[in-house]
Amino acid sequence: MSCGGNYNYELIAKLSFPRKREWHKLILEDLYMFIIDFDDTLFDNYAFKHARQRAAADAGVSAEDFLASYRAVSQRGGYSNEAHAAELAGLGYDAGKVLQAFEITTGPALAEWRLPDAVRFLERLAGLGEQLVLFSYGNPAFQELKIIGAGIGTYFDQLVLTPVPKRESITRLPARKGDETAWFINNRVDETIELCQLIPASGVLKRPPEETEEVFKTSGLPYFLTLVEIGEYVATR
């Protein structure tokens, strides 16, 4: 399974309403909602990356070359199976063999890295009757591939996939006018603080278990280890 195409969107790369089974323009301006990050919030991107490294190793790629090529492609933008395989081909590896190895990780296996309580969490929020927006930074085609493979896209009213940093696109999101704010649920402390200063949003942090607690303690934001805890917290506020 591969993702391709030349995505050259200025700010918001893709906007869809999977739950409503239809496409819309960004015209909603008075909505209270949940804005939810994908990588390491709903999806274990840390484990996914390591699985890709192991798959590459089976194709003969050293750990050093995998990491260096991963960083190079990510920094340029447009990360995909094909782009990473091409980068490794430049280091002397067999592009076809590497691509085949990467595609093993972006097929049905993607559901393995959906966090175990993600579906329960999304069902809890969906039951509140508010709009759910998935807000993700990265190559839109590759992020969409992961989201669909993880089996969570249909829980959202909108998928907003942006190839530019979130701070450059978050002000384009629909937000409720007036006193009420959106909830922004994310795993990155600094990013959450920054974005909640750009739009009327209250941040809640999902702490990945591999990260130390200290930075979350000093953030001044509520944080939780599980999505179920976050769901209960926001539902009672």
Textual characterization of the structure:
Helix 1 packs antiparallel against helix 4. It contains nine helices and seven strands. The radius of gyration is 18 Å and the shape is elongated. It folds into two domains: 14-44 and 114-235, 3-Layer(aba) Sandwich (Rossmann fold), CATH 3.40.50; 45-110, no CATH class. A seven-stranded mixed sheet has the order 1-4-3-2-5-6-7, with helices on both faces. The N and C termini lie far apart (41 Å). With 237 residues, it is of the alpha/beta class. The chain has helices spanning 45-58, 63-76, 81-89, 95-105, 118-126, 140-150, 189-196, 214-217, 227-235; strands at 14-16, 33-36, 131-137, 158-162, 182-186, 201-206, 223-224.
**Fourth-tier CATH superfamily name of the largest domain:** HAD superfamily/HAD-like
Widest beta sheet: strand line-up:
1-4-3-2-5-6-7
* Strand content bin: 5-15%
Quaternary structure: single chain
**Number of DSSP strands?**
7
**Could you give the order of the helices and strands?**
EEHHHHHEHEEHEHEH
The span between the termini is: 41 Å
Q: Count of helical segments?
A: 9
Mean pLDDT: 85
CATH architecture of the largest domain: 3-Layer(aba) Sandwich
Radius of gyration: 18 Å
